[in-house]
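Readers outside the structure-tokenisation community will struggle with the description of the input data as it stands. For illustration, here is how one protein appears when written out as sequence plus structure tokens:
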Amino acid sequence: MHTTAVRERLRALGPELLGFATAGVLAYAADLGLFVWLRGPVGLDPLTAKALSFLAGCSVAYAGNALGTYRNKTAAVSRLRQYGIFFAVNIAGALVQLLCIAVSHYGLGLTSQRADTVSGAGIGMVLATVLRFWGTRTLVFRTQGSTQASAQARTQGTPGTQGTQNRQASWTG
């Protein structure tokens, strides 16, 4: 791919990336703020506080993306199902961050607080954000028309598949 084509593609993705990042920053603020409040004045244990703040953060991120970034896309599935898929994508992102810490801390023996922060909040956050962006645009806010068009393009472009049924197996339905 030529550098001009790459630049064009990145330029076209700009508004989507900006909207996704804005929703993410707002979600992070909601998550952090609620966690601090639940741990402090409310006095909940850390796991309960984090579970509730994570759920709130996911909800803010979903609302930001559904009502902002991807508001012009017609949903291929119900909003409730979209939220469930969105939540699963965010759980996968959280697991990526935990995996980065586990590899760094237990696998590589980098046990300092700084190493844990770099691996979890640095490297893990970057990898998790890439996964969340891909999952959000590909699995959550996909449109019915784009799914059918991509299935047709795959079968029409493959020799020997003309005339076969277009069936797309997917856990998202």
Remarks:
- Helices lie at 3-39, 46-69, 79-107, 113-140, 144-157.
- The first helix runs from residue 3 to 39.
- The CA atoms of residues 18 and 69 lie 8 Å apart.
- Residues 147-151, 157-173 have pLDDT under 50 and may be disordered.
